[in-house]
Amino acid sequence: MVCLNFIPLLVLLLGFGLGDAFPSDALKKTCSLSKYRFLVPHVLEAVQKMQQQFDDIMLLSDRKCRTLLFHRRKSLVTAELSVPDRLMLVEAELDFAITMLGLPASTRFAETRQRPLAFLTQAQEDLRVCMAIEAPSHQPSRKLRHQLQKLETARKTETTGCLEATAILHLFQMLNDLQCAARRDQCT
Questions:
Q1: pLDDT in tens, 7-37
Q2: Which residues form the signal peptide (predicted)?
């Protein structure tokens, strides 16, 4: 009987000892974006539902947007950027989208965007971990700096309504960019 009571205590002591051998920060220091290589259908459906609902809202508003923020002559992420540049661009795009999806909205639309917002927030956190591990002092290329400057200029010059519309209507492009970043050098 005494031996059986000793086992849980031994397991507890070993757990504390192993915890010192493997600090919790060391366990978190891995970069894995593989879960973003192929997006699950329920996320894509949630984004599509949100975009459709937003299209209905746009029809009732007078938003006239002329920003060319996401218009690229070809896929900048896949064809022209290094892997660290891709990570930086996608993180900036997700930051933009998360900010716009976080704006006040009607109750119905706020509910519709919860799943896409949660997904984008998790992806952004994962990208930040990867950037901190793989490229903590990476300097963006000229092409990336140009794209980031375009994003920053739009944030300063466009209306909030226009920025929100741009973010929501281009979410699938951002998701494609995320998939490309997750595929690393295999993205073509």
A1: 444 344 444 444 454 444 444 567 889 999 9
A2: 1-21
DSSP state of 70: T
Cβ neighbours, 10 Å, residue 7:
9
What residue ranges do the domains of the chain occupy?
75-186
How far lies 136's CA from each of 17, 87, 121, 131, 157, in Å? Answer: 31, 11, 20, 6, 30
pLDDT at residue 118 greater than cutoff 60: yes
Distance between CA 90 and CA 170 in Å, rounded? 13
- The H-assigned helical ranges of the chain are 2-21, 24-28, 41-60, 76-80, 83-101, 107-112, 114-134, 142-157, 160-169, 171-183
DSSP assigned state of 184: G
Burial code (b: 16+ CB inside 10 Å, e: under 16) for 95-123 equals ebbbebbeeeeeeebeebbebbbebbeeb
Terminal CA-to-CA distance of the chain, rounded, Å?
64
d(CA 7, CA 13): 10
**For residue 5, how many C-alpha atoms fall within 13 Å in the half-sphere facing its CB?**
2
Phi first, then psi: what are they for 176, rounded to 5°? -65, -40
Angle (CA) 168-118-33 rounded to 5° is 95
